[in-house]
C-alpha cells in the first residue's frame, strides 16, 4: 500500500518511480503465484494424464524405475 501511495500521490524522480513500478510488479507476480499454489485445483488434467500414463506402463507412482522396496 505504501508503494502505491508513493507511486500515485507523491512527487518522485523518474528513476525512483521506475524502481517503485518494478517493486509493485514483482509483488503482484508473487501474489499471483502464491494464490495459484494454494487455491489451484490439485486434480487437474495434467496430473490425471500423468497417472494414466504411469498406470499404462506398469509403473508405481511412488517408485522410480529400478527402485526396490523392502518387505
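^ Assign residues to that structure.
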Amino acid at each position: 500500500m505504501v508503494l502505491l501511495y508513493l507511486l500515485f500521490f507523491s512527487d518522485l524522480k523518474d528513476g525512483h518511480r521506475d524502481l517503485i513500478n518494478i517493486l509493485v510488479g514483482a509483488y503482484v507476480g508473487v501474489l499471483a503465484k502464491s494464490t495459484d499454489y494454494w487455491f489451484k485445483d490439485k486434480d487437474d488434467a495434467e496430473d490425471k494424464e500423468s497417472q494414466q500414463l504411469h498406470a499404462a506402463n506398469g509403473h508405481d507412482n511412488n517408485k522410480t524405475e529400478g527402485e526396490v522396496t523392502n518387505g
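Residues 8 and 17 are 9 Å apart (CA to CA).
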